[in-house]
Every structure is written in structure tokens, then in C-alpha cells.
Amino acid sequence: MRSEFHSQPAGAILVALAALLSPALYAQAPSSATGATSPAEAGVVSSALQQLGAPTGQNPAAPTNDSFSGSIPTGKATGGIMDLSLDESISRGLRQNLGILLQESQQQGAYGQELQQLQALLPAVTGDASLEVQQINLAAFGLKFPGLKPIVGPFQVVDFRAYLTQNLVNVSALENYLAAKHNFAAAKLTAEDARDLVVLTVGNAYLLCIADQARIDAVSAQLATSKVSLDQAVAAHDAGTTPRLDVLRAQVDYQNQQQNLISAKNQFAKDKLSLARAIGLPLDQQIRLSDTEPFRALDNLDADAAFEQAVKNRKDLAAAREQVAAAKAQKTAAFADQLPTVKFSGDFGDLGTTPAHSHSTYSATGTVSAPILQIAKTRGEEKVAGANYQQASDRLADKVQQVNADIRDAILDIQSAAKLVDTAKSNLDLAKEELSETQQRFQAGVADNLPVSQAQSSVEQANNRYIGALYQHNAAKLALARALGMAQTNLKDYLGGK
What we know:
The structure is a single chain. The protein is 62% helix and 14% strand. It is an alpha+beta fold. It folds into two domains: 2-121 and 171-338 and 374-495, Outer membrane efflux proteins (OEP), CATH 1.20.1600.10; 128-169 and 340-373, Outer membrane efflux proteins (OEP) (Single Sheet). The strands form two sheets. A four-stranded antiparallel sheet has the order 2-3-5-6, with no helix packed on it. Strands 1-4 form a two-stranded parallel sheet. A hairpin with a 2-residue loop joins β5 (341-354) and β6 (357-369). The model is unreliable at 1-64 (pLDDT under 50).
């Protein structure tokens, strides 16, 4: 009878099984290999379960800027497997992540603009040397003198000269320099904030890989359990004590777990590629995660105290304040365009027919200039600068509120995920106990293997919930560290464990 079972076409077996199996079995089965659950359970299982099978860029904990998902790779892949810890991943990301490299380039550009604006306040000195040879026809100018030749020359003039210009009073140039200075300070702070975003991106990618590995381990254990159930069903069927339906049901469960394992391994490989992309590793480098996903509860979280801490620590808030100051300086510069400016200019040089027959000459000029009629230009510049200042102020106010909301959201997620972890762990233990009981009953011949198949589905779903709850809890703690502006310095304190 066993050989007869294996000779049946797979399609005919599945059709027969679909017609015979109880609907209750499929009501409890996962809807996909990634651990998605039925709509009735959606309120219980957190969104982290769905994130587990989604690309990294779709996770709410990850930065929206796609540049932080890329990097500039260094080195070549080794032949062996590299052990990669979370700390090492973050260190590599802080060196090679594309987002932070682009921010550093923008910082250099802002510094260059500051220097350009500074030059308007500094003395400008230029120099030149000239040699001029002339021959003049006096008759062409109507100059005719008796006894004097109309052609004069040729003769030469040698001139070595230095020129100096200096703004003595120029309010507009001063304010433009101050605006550029604030913009550079904002760029520096933004580059520092980018380091937190790199930690957030890399940390989230690493946590996903850890969750994928846990998923593979769980599915592998479920596959082994399904194999035991299949062997029991085949042995009982060969002995003539159970119907063929039990074998078919066990075979389907076993093959489902094989599919789940293939899907889990594929997702793990893709998420490791995303991690390598974020930290600058060659994509063909084989890696092994050396850290595990810990569970460490965070208690006594005070949203108000956390918000006060974030206002002091967040570099992006400080950068936004610098941008407001820059916009204010530009607004003042726009108004100052209608004010008088005072400038000094002069030159000093040596002038003569040859360097040996020359004498020093110089000139000095002080200039006061003021616009008389440029009403539309000045008014327009003031309107534009005023609008930019208002926008910068509004963005700062909104960002402060967004930080407050991020902190409160993260705290709520941490508290909720902690309860989910406890509940999911308890459910997993109960599901495993139920599976053990049903296997013993089937082996004793008290019942068929339908309860075994249902219990295996329950264990799979409980595993998915537990893995997803752990990921959600750690992702929420990572988001809180980012919201506080402490992701780079205090990440381990929030995640805990190794």
C-alpha cells in the first residue's frame, strides 16, 4: 500500500485531500509562507509579522530617504563566512553608507558657500604687470606744430601695480555671510543626525535578518515534527490501522513546511543582501550573524521627560533652528539692500618707460553708494526672504511636534509589543504542548491525525506571532532611541543583550 501511495499523481492526491479534509484545518492554516494570518487574527498579530516578509524600505522604522539603503562598497569578498555583529555592522555603515557620505559632501558645499560670502567682507587684492608700446599720429587729432614731427614714438610704458578693495560698511553682505554661516552649522548638524539615521537603517536591517534566522529555525523544527507525523501515519497505514487519508494529510503538512522553509531561506538571503548594501559589504560576501535578538523590557518610560531629552539631543532639531536663524539673516539682508554702502579702493604701483626708469604712483578712493530707485526689487526680495523665514519657523515648530509624536508612538509600541511577546510566548508553549498530546493520541490509535495537523498549524502560527512580536519590540526600542537622538550612542542600552 505504501508503494501505491507514492505512485499516485500529486495533483490527484491534493484534489482528493481538498475534498475530504475538514474546513477547520484550513481555517487555522497560515495564508502564506511568510507568516501572514487569517483576517480574524489580524487584530491580535502585530504589523511586525507583515513587515517580516516585506522589503526593508517598507518598514516604518526605516528612514524614508533611499540613499541610506545604499553604500559605497569596499574590499573584496573572502572565501569564507564572515561573522558579523550588530556593532560591526553599524561601524561599517557609519563609514560606508551612502546617506552619510552624501551628507558630508553637502556639508563641504555649505562650507564653501560660507567662504564665498565671507570674501565680500574681506580685503581683495589683485595685481598686474603691463608693458605698453605706442606710436601716435598727432595730425590725426588735428595737432600740427611748425617744426614738430606729427609722428611721436614709438615709446613704451611699463606698469607694475597692485589694487585693493575693501567694504567698510555693507550690512547686506554681512547678513548674507551670517546666513551662510548658519546654513553651514545646519549642514554639520544634519550630517551628525545622518549618523543616527544610519544606525536606524542598519539596526533595522540587522533585526530583520535575526528574525529571518529565527523563522528558519522555527520552520526547520516544524519540518522535523511534520516528518515524524508523516512517518507515523505511513507506518500506521502500512499496518492497516489508519486510513489512507491520514497519510495524505501528513504528506501535505510536510510539503507545506518544505515550502515555508524555502520561502524563509529566500527571504533571509534577500534581507542579508539589503544589510550588505547598507554597510558597504560586497554582495557576494557570505555572512553569519553573531548577535541574537534579545528581549529586554523597558519600564518606567516617561514621555514628557523623554521629549525634553530629545529637544536637547536631536541634531535635526538643532539643524532646523540654525536654518531658521539663516532665514532670519537673509530677511535682514534683503532689507539692507536699500541701505548705503561704504567702500575703499586704491592702487599702488611703479610706472615708467623701463623698470630702471620708473617711479611709484598710487591712488586712493573712498566711495559711498546708495540705491535711489529700486522699490520693486527691494520689496520683492523682502517678500521672498520673509516667506522663507516663515516657512523655516513653521517647519521647526512642526518638527518639534513630530519628535514628540515619535517618542509617544515608540513608547506605546514598546509597551504593546512587550505584552505581545509575553502572550505569544505563552501561546507557543501551549501550542507545542497541544501538538505533543495530539501526536501521542494518534500514535496510540485513539484518534486520527487531523488534530495533529491542526496542532502543527497552531504551532506555526504561534511561532510566527512570537518572532514577529520580538522583532516589533526591538524595532520599537530602536525607533525610541532614534526619536531621543541617542541611536548612535545608546543603542545597546535599549536593545539589551548580545
